Amino acid sequence: MHTLKKRTTVLLMGIGLGLTMACKDGENTVKENSEEISTQATVSQEIEAAIDLPGHMVEGEKVYTQHCLLCHQSNGAGVPGLNPPLKGTEYVVGDKDRLLEIVLYGSNVGLLVNGSVYSNAMPAFKMLGDEDIANVTSYIRNSFGNAADPITADEVVAIRSKIKE
Amino acid sequence: MKNNFNIMLGNRINYILAGIVVILLMSCKPETKPAEGAPTLAISTDNAGLSVPEGFGVIKVADSLGKPRHIAVTSTGGIFVKLREPINGEGILYLEDSDGDGIAETKQGFGNYGGTGIDVDDEYLYASSDEEIFRYPLDNNGKVSITSMPDTLVTGLIARRAHATKSFTLDGKGNIYVNIGAYSNACQVQDRTIGSPPMMPCTILDSAGGIWRFRADQMKQSYGEGMRYATGLRNVVGLDWNKTDDKLFVTQHGRDMLNTLFPDLYDAKTSAELPAETLYKIEEGDDAGWPYIYYDQIQKKKILAPEYGGDGQKTAGENAIDPVVAFPGHMAPNALLFYTGDMFPEKYKNGAFIAFHGSWNRAPEKQQGYMVAFVPFSNGLPSGDWEVFADGFAGTEEVLSPNEAAHRPTGLAQGPDGSLYVSDDSGGTLFRIVYPKK
């Protein structure tokens, strides 16, 4: 069963690669992690997601829609001058600890995101459960053209205990 | 021979093609009417992509200006533009159209600070950063010849990231009215955070969340020298002095996130509509009620904010003023201008134009309001329903996220001939709307 799925994935990977190359979205794929994750792997992830969406993408999208979408928008592009983009930024696809700190404890210092500063406060979401935080951070790391490894609930717990409240 | 024929035929085809290209190019060029002494305005054949009422036309004065916010036009037709962020150390632009076609040929810059507010009177240019207001003397040509040493009229105003811009207007009697926006959405202890309690009382109102009045002829004023003219205003970006009844009018950006912060009380659809964006007529000492109440344009009531115990129904704020116009939520009224010109048809005289920046806080619903609205006025109060005056700034039917909008109206100014200028801080374009005589 597993082998069959893998074989289908490889096959779809090929088709997907062609399709992605033909459409514009392929260009949006974040390049920042290109050393670790090749384009092929990205496409395979996308295809895999289309067949059998990982739990963190399904659950993460729910959390995103309720708590994040209003400011960061459905396309993850944010709002000019007010709310920073989540697509194509190291703050999201880069260091996991830094991302978790911002999501759990908020930020209101005017971070420079892709060359611009955004004026609205990022609220704290420490009241959300470890699974929700893991799912939503994994979701934004793998949406809007982003591709980065997911975050686990254990990693959320580790940041919570590192930063004593 | 065959070759020659081919060459000749090729040439002929080339000529025909060249002719077609010329015709096509000519149809792309701005329409120029036959000159009869007076300069002709280069009205765009497609009104620069905007839709305006019958008989009006649009000139694209300039583009690629960066992020132009408020604008001001002098009595000689020179245009001052305030940039949100300076470009090469220049935060104010001066544009000039010397051949009278409406398109600016020259551009100069000065003022090494970003901001939003700018205005002119007969003697001075006034411009604001997020903390200060400066004044530059105008020379006999209506230009600023000494750009490096402005007077500092006001200094030390609070700017804490959110709602930091300092829009202002002049009353023509030596006073300047400045918005000091609340650095908060709804005065929670932790801004925009689920479950964070509200401040009671909201101490932000001591130094922000209102309109402060200063003198336009005194130096280095701050809170001690000014007075809080009106309070309970979350963030005002559009202000204008209505000269027909000598009153200040302001447009407030209503609060955000009713659904995100109170999902049990407001669903996403309701939260996309509420609360109203509001136009207020301001008397000295007025309180518009923020953060304790918001205005619900559907129930036509002042509703107790959920942070302060509201449930979407309970009314409150008996002492707070009502808006004179309530617009749909989140459209971001960024500029207000009372039209006193003679160019436009009679119905526009003394009425209010409002530049709406367009929403973001309606997500996941479709965004709205990338347009300039008009409110007819009579005897200093609205005399009819508001209407869309200029539309199509977004350049697309459906906007899901503001990044998709080609243009976002931000500033308004009236030219000496009665033209209406509109700035756009998304595409960096400056439009001029005219009503050519038949």
Total DSSP E strands of chain A: 2
Query: What is the percentage of strand-forming residues of chain B?
Result: 25-35%
Reading off the top of the CATH hierarchy, the class of the largest domain in chain A is best stated as: Mainly Alpha
List the strand order in the largest sheet of chain A: 1-2
Describe this structure in words.
The complex is a heterodimer of chains A (165) and B (438). Chain A is mainly alpha-helical. Chain A contains nine helices and two strands; from the N terminus they run αααααααββαα. In chain A, α7 (96-105) packs across α9. The longest helix of chain A has 21 residues, at 2-22. Chain B has one domain (42-434): Neuraminidase, CATH 2.120.10.30. The longest helix of chain B is centred in the N-terminal third of the chain and has 27 residues, at 2-28. Residues 1-10 and 16-35 of chain B have low confidence and may be disordered. The A-B interface holds A 65-67, 69-71, 73-75, 77-83, 106, 108, 110, 119-121, 123-125, 127 and B 84, 161-164, 190-196, 256-257, 259-260, 263, 360-361, 363-364, 400-403, 426.
Core attributes:
heterodimer; A: 165 residues; mainly alpha; Cytochrome Bc1 Complex, Chain D, domain 2; 2 domains; two-stranded antiparallel ribbon; 55% helix; disordered N terminus; B: 438 residues; mainly beta; Neuraminidase; four-stranded antiparallel beta sheet; 8% helix
